[in-house]
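Hi Y.,

Following your request, here is the sequence exactly as I used it, all 148 residues.
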Amino acid sequence: MVPLTSKQKAALEALLTSKSHAEAARKAGIGRATLWRYLNNPDFKKAYREARRQLAVERLERLRQTARQMELILVGVAYDETAPATARVGAAREILAQFNEAEKTLELMDIQERLEALEGGNDDEAAKIKYFAEAFQSGETEGESGEP
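Below is the corresponding structure, written out as tokens. Let me know if you'd prefer a different format.
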């Protein structure tokens, strides 16, 4: 992987903290067309994906630490008939929803990485998938032919 330029690093940071590509381009001091070229550059794309993944992992860890406490609040509220729990339940549900969203984000990012590896010519992975797809289509069962 080729190291990112200072402009690419600024664009990467801006992408991670902006609400839109236009805002990210402004923050990085580049044009939207330049940002688009960066986003289509394999090295930049990989760095951006890794940075987004790291943010998702950090978020998931923070949420994982509080999720158990929120579960306990929900259980406590469920058994405490005297507690005015509307706000607490709403907050607990929101945190749990964010926890689930973060997990889904990581799953989707893993799928995206595998897809890009296949599209990008990861020959070993592509060969295995092709082999199993052809074996499935021809009706071969496990053990009838050797794995690639």
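The CA atoms of residues 49 and 112 lie 9 Å apart.

Thanks again,
Q.
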